[in-house]
Design brief:
By secondary structure, this protein is an alpha/beta fold. It has a single domain, classed as Rossmann fold. It is 27% helix and 30% strand. It has 5 helices and 11 strands, in the order ββββαβββαβαβαβαβ. The strands form 2 sheets. A 5-stranded mixed barrel has the order 5-9-8-6-10. A two-stranded antiparallel sheet has the order 7-11. β2 and β3 form a beta hairpin. α1 packs parallel to α4 and α2 packs across α5. The two termini are 30 Å apart.
């Protein structure tokens, strides 16, 4: 089964066929299952419907475990991000290829000892290479312009970053800044799921160019969300397998 995780402003469940509540040891999760061309696709509102949950309080472990319990193996996630790279302007779409983790207080693993033995997970290809390549291929065919690959800096939020923080992230090689990919990408790897994040540039980061504008953020999202979702669905329809990546074998046993 396949899933789409929607971030800020992207998620729209008005066409849902079924609302399903999944119980996990970490909490209950409400998911929308939509039948598209005979195939069920799971939609998850990362921040809750109505954008009611701030990024640092999202129950990431419950979300990812619920998807796994439904049999999901492939996930496309969307993320609204600010740009700290002058090459990527508001309105652009980027494919996330790596991340820098600056979160502070979130549970970032299913394996915390005790009942869950300590395990380590390989992060050499955090965002599934196969799904990234498929997205590029299908986007080109469907006329969706992709600006390039990007390194995602994940901050704790919900505040935006200072100009000096952005300067530091730039010096470390960060291209875009957001608040949600960690621990989502890590948990997906721990569960052996293929996961890819596509970023929508919504604004310049603090100190780069103009001031952040909420109107600009929403306009950038509205411009691209439908096309992006259609590309996801076309990739899903064409078919995916886990033989062209190492996502299902990411746990390193010691």
């Amino acid at each position: 089964m396949k899933a789409i995780i929607g971030g800020t402003g992207v998620y729209n469940a008005s066409s849902s066929n079924e609302i399903k509540k999944v119980s996990t040891k970490y909490g209950d999760v409400e998911l929308d299952i939509v039948n598209i061309h005979g195939e069920d696709i799971v939609f998850l509102a990362r921040h809750g419907k109505g954008h009611s949950v701030p990024p640092h309080l999202i129950n990431y472990r419950a979300n990812m475990m619920a998807l796994k319990k439904l049999g999901v193996n492939y996930i496309y996630a969307t993320a609204a991000v600010g740009s700290s790279n002058e090459k990527y302007a508001p309105g652009d779409i980027v494919v996330i290829k790596d991340f820098l983790d600056f979160t502070k207080s979130r549970p970032v693993t299913f394996y915390e000892g005790g009942d869950e033995p300590v395990k380590h997970v390989d992060m050499s290809d955090p965002y599934c290479k196969n799904m990234r390549e498929k997205f590029y291929e299908k986007a080109k065919i469907m006329g969706l312009s992709i600006k390039g690959d990007a390194v995602y800096v994940c901050t704790e939020g919900p505040r935006f970053e200072t100009a000096k923080e952005i300067q530091m992230f730039r010096n470390l090689g960060g291209d875009v800044v957001g608040m949600t990919t960690v621990p989502e990408v890590i948990l997906a790897k721990e569960l052996g799921m293929c996961y890819s994040t596509i970023g929508i540039i919504t604004n310049w980061c603090t100190g780069i160019k103009d001031d952040i504008s909420i109107h600009d953020i929403q306009a950038s999202i509205n411009k691209n969300k439908e096309k992006m979702t259609n590309v996801f669905i076309e990739v899903f329809k064409e078919g995916l397998d886990q033989e062209n990546c190492n996502c299902k074998n990411s746990i390193i046993e010691l």
